[in-house]
Amino acid sequence: MLIILFALLYVDMFDTVGTLVGVSSKEDMLTKEGKVVNVKISPFADAIGTTFGAMIGVSTVTTYVESAAGVAEGGRTGLTIISTATMFFLALFL
Fold it and tell me: What does pTM read for this prediction?
């Protein structure tokens, strides 16, 4: 069981770091040295979301590389997330 746990841990960790670096470089949110701003906070927020989602029994709550599409279109605030969540909620009834 521990081997499976560690395998899933590392897959999620590398997926989160890769998405964070990719989206940050897309929007020029890197420092002059090429480092991600708030690199300690972002994976922590992802871990909280993943843990909370697992506790309430929903599908995985994590960062996705598709976020780069929203960033490429200029979505840097929480408004894009709220509008996407609203559309997904409305789609539940269709």
Answer: 0.64
